[in-house]
Amino acid sequence: MKRLALIVALATLVVIVGSCSSTRYIVDSDTQHNFKGYSSYAWFQLASPPDKAQPPTEANTILTRRIRRAIDVELTNKGMKTAPVADADFLVTYSLVLQSQMVMYYT
What angle do CA 61, 66, 71 make, to 5 degrees? Predict the structure, then answer.
């Protein structure tokens, strides 16, 4: 179940990030998996290690809402319905790695 949730999360993240042409992303998924038997999903909350600070996306409620809404829209368009965690056919989650980078050009 965890692997399936990861596959769905990564595939959905590709759709979201795909609109940003300058953004690099890496996807690891099972492209042979058949989702036709699934009709419901639930959000799975990843546990943060107790010694770690809150992830940047969790602190940014606007970003979190936008990501979740985009994933909900995509899954709803595919005929999926939300369900309680115990009743869902698969679980959805996402994670982001945010990295600042400065490029200096000299002329």
Answer: 125
| pLDDT tens-digit map of 15-45 | 666 555 555 666 667 888 888 889 999 998 8
DSSP element (H, E) containing 90: strand 90-92
- Which tokens in the block code for residue 103? 């490029």
Report whether 91 contacts 44 (CB < 8 A). yes
* Burial class of 47 by CB neighbour count within 10 A (0 to 12, 13 to 18, 19+): exposed
Prediction pTM value: 0.58
The answer for 26, left when phi > 0, alpha when psi is -120 to 50, beta otherwise, is beta
Confirm if 78 and 38 have CB atoms less than 8 A apart: no
CA separation for the pair 90, 96 (Å, rounded): 20
- Interatomic CA distance for residues 15 and 29, integer angstroms: 13
d(CA 12, CA 5): 11
